[in-house]
Design a protein that fits this description.
Blueprint: H1 2-58, H2 64-76, E1 90-91, E2 98-99
């Protein structure tokens, strides 16, 4: 009797482990496909940025040196020259609630996060 109970409990453990392994495999596949999608999106953004920079440079809007200086200035805006920009959450210009800096519109009232005032 005890042997049967032990056997059933072992079978259940095996089944649970197989389910968990299946879930982990599905999660890994999903994460991998998201990484590929993001990689493609980044490549597209890089290409668009390069095209815009080239056009603006060709039209004499700014030189490559000015672009590099501006990139460095923006990189340093968070206090670190590390090729990254850390955007801190900021208050909505209208309702003053704190909103993630990457948002173009306030999550709460829908106002533009870019202050129209000069
Ligand atoms: Zn708001």
């Amino acid at each position: 009797m005890y042997g049967l109970f032990w056997e059933l409990s072992q079978q259940r453990r095996i089944w649970e482990a197989e389910m968990a392994a299946g879930d982990a495999k599905a999660d890994a596949r999903y994460a991998n496909s998201r990484a590929i999608e993001l990689e493609r999106a980044v490549e597209t953004l890089v290409m668009i940025n390069m095209a815009m920079a080239k056009l603006l440079h060709e039209r004499g809007v700014f030189s490559e040196q000015e672009l590099e200086t501006k990139v460095r200035e923006i990189d340093l805006s968070d206090g670190k020259l590390d090729g990254k920009v850390r955007l801190d959450p900021k208050p909505c210009p209208q309702c003053k609630r704190i909103v993630a800096a990457r948002r173009a519109r306030c999550l709460y009232c829908g106002a533009s996060m870019y202050d129209a005032r000069p």
